[in-house]
Amino acid sequence: METLVGLLLAQSTINETGEPVLYLAPTNQLVQQTLDKAEAYGISAVPYTRGQPLDDEFINGNAIMVGTYKALFNGRSKFGIRGEVNPQKVSAIILDDAHAAFSVVRDSFTLEVSAKNNFDRYEALVDIFRNLLKRLISSALLKTLSKDLIIQFLKFPTGLGMNS
Prior knowledge:
alpha/beta
């Protein structure tokens, strides 16, 4: 029932604005279920297809585009990024099963550097954060903590994860 409500909200937005609407789900299976439900109720919807241009029916505001969260939340989104000349305009983004989006978005923007496989890069990143941490923690305390202990217990606010 929730999917139908989301699809109706998306279609209502298209009817009101004449602009594209993006419907996101956490998995490919849920994307397909959403497309099937849209078809069953006569709602025009097209799939987001990785590696292909955005569907004209979506761009022209004639169909809802249904894709996974990764279609939008990645470093090279087809929907554009701030500062681009012509980002794809959407009038609404519907997030189905929104609580599942957190881990997808976090994973999409997390950099993991293994000390075992990339020791020099790992050390350089730890040193960068050590300098930043000096502003937050007294230097006497910081000197007593090992790099591994700092990384293990501190969640970096920039979203940069480092695992040893």
